[in-house]
Input
Amino acid sequence: MHIAILTMRLSLPGCASLKEKRQRIGGLHERYGRNPAVSVCESGDQDRLESSEWTFVVVGTQQPKVESLCSEIEDKMQRTVDGRVMEATREFL
Output
């Protein structure tokens, strides 16, 4: 079994309210939580309006598949979130 922890820090410039923050990053649970190999949560900066941290745990039987899924998540986050990905780190267990 291969496990990767992908943590992504997002910058949300100009975000003025918690409601706006939720709209800009909304749907992450729904988009990624459908995949049984992925678990997702907002892991940091819940109280900050202009940033957010999300952690994804990806599990699979083959490491290349886990790495590919992590890359897919990173690419999709770059394209779909109304903000900028400032940092993405991967840790393999």
Summary: The mean pLDDT is 89. Residues 69 and 77 are 12 Å apart (CA to CA).
